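Hey,

Quick one before I head out. I ran the complex with iron/sulfur cluster overnight. Inputs first:
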Amino acid sequence: MSIPTDSPTKTLCPYCGVGCGLEVLSASQGKLGDQADNPIWQVRGDRAHPSSQGMVCVKGATIAESLDKDRLLYPMLRDSLDQPFRQVSWDQALDRIVQAIQTVQANFGVDALCMYGSGQFNTEDYYVAQKLFKGCLGTNNFDANSRLCMSSAVSGYIQSLGADGPPCCYEDLDLTDCAFLIGTNTAECHPIIFNRLRRHHKKNADVKMIVVDPRRTQTAEVADLHLAIRPGTDIHLLHGMAHLLLKWGAINPDFMAKCTSGWSDYAELVRHYSPEAVARECGIELADLEQAARYWAKAKRVLSLWSMGVNQSSEGTAKVSTLINLHLMTGQIGKPGAGPFSLTGQPNAMGGREAGGLAHLLPGYRSIKNPQHRAEVEQFWGLAAGQISATPGRVVWDMIRGLETGEVQFLWIAATNPAVSLPDLKRVQAALRRSPFTVYQEAYYPTETCEYAHLLLPAAQWGEATGCTTNSERVVTLCQQFRDRPGEVRPDWMIFAEVGRRLGFESQFWFTEPAEVFAEFSQLTRDRPCDQTGISHDRLRSEGPLQWPCPEGDLSTSNTKRLYTDLQFHTPDRRAQFVAYHPQGMAEPPNPDYPFVFTNGRLYGHWHTQTRTGRIAKIRQMHPNPFLEIHPRDAAKLNLEAGDWVKVRSPRSSAHFPAKITAAIAPGTVFAPMHWGQLWADQAEVNNLTHPQACPQSQQPELKACAVQLERLPKLAASPAIAAASNLTPI
Ligand code: SF4
């Protein structure tokens, strides 16, 4: 490729779903002098990007430092996990994959093949992988790490509004009267969104911010009202608020009559949730519950925001729909400053949803279970009728179970690190060890998952491939390649397409450029809720980011800021649906043997399993070690002092952390950050503790909460847990 030299390259931060625009300059464009042979990349916020307006957090600002650290540069193969890797050519690697797929297909059937992808993919990567697995191979066993992140938001939106897709936009952060943040530490996890909301909140004394979180997070610190509910009582709280709104008559009967169905069942249900009982159950003051409902009732525009604290739950879909119920009963949707707004964790989890990148989806917000949807996609892909299986594929946890039983014989993992990020980690690691053949496509080496791979494929990362990403407000940005690819790395979509061609699907994988992939994908969104037929690489390059729905030809309807402004929903009767759930609580509540609730989350600087951020000095200095937050009262009972090592044990396994004693966490609950896998610390993996029980609708595991016991470790046994990342050895 030719690297642009006269102006910065526009791209997007590859970390979180906020989707901040970046401009990248090589050293020769900046202040550092001409180092064209070894460019040093400078990154700055893109002031022209509509979503972020030039702002970036520390992750975006330091991203370029990770470009050349510990890169996987060549395909590497080994016959068994106890052997060392040996470098092979791409031809050898691809032949090996094709041979493995064909052998497994012949001996076990296509459903023994699985791929586990990532919200780090560009939309083009997602799309080609869907076409390969769901279309050409005929198995729906493609799932992505978005399963761990936002699949409850997807199923909640579909259930309540008839289709996926957050109806709000970031401008609503500047327009709301009442921001209701539940299960989201936005200040640390989506900092640029939070800064925007906080600015509006600070400037306008009438604007209220309610934060619902068992921890007193940085987000809760600045709220007008912090509801530190007991973990697992979110639905009680929402029903209690609904009860009060109904009792006070603070509802919108006209909106409900015209635009919704199911109200009477829901109204009957919430009558049983008296505020007194709800406050008791949630462990909060009745006055605080009433204040939250009052803020909601008085606001002209209520915006709710949520992320993993709601989604990562065995009743995640119920929580999402119950929250949407509050919007429906008060008519707080389809207008500026209002609506239920899920904050996406990963940079392109949204694009993955649009491209069909989960085991139950097809491109264009289609469903595997819908025969018409399957037929449309088969026809479009030039495949025989019935080629796409009617059975939803294995979600990631079913892939793990399939490895245990031998039903899964081939696993292809790309751009994710399941040897750290999946629940019940020891079980996952044992299952991965049993895999007959695992391909791992990744930009970095080592990661913890490398240990379980037979074949490593070097993938292009940020800046080394061009493709599209959709952020939380449905804005599609073209992320442009700005540097040559090191070694022999290849873009993910290109690898999938080459395997497709070698399997004999030449006509399906004709693409030579990512723009061609996007052009084909966008045709599958025609007349769908996520219509992107008006978007192309060329248009994005010349006009900048575009928001969907963006249908071809009719530019007056493109860049639609909000969905449902016409109050027509995507349900069969065009009405939004109230859904009535009684709360189930945590799947694994505390008990006499495991008396504490363990919860976990992100820190401001780190990203997921540190594959990138662990390699950036500034971020490592910012967050050098894992820790366990514990309330002073609990610490005193355990005779713990700050810095003492604590063994945390769940029914599955244990982890060790130094204690951080703080009243920010409620008594009875402990918190640890999620970022430390075995490469970065010894025995500090939070997922040694978590369990895989999942929401029955979304199949999203309850990563946020499990029951644990605590034990103070003897002083001398302390301190083994912080491993030096400098021990990493390049391949
Ligand atoms: S807020 Fe998210 S997208 Fe924006 S710079 Fe930070 S990590 Fe990147």
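Residues 90-108 form the longest helix (19 residues).

Talk tomorrow,
K.
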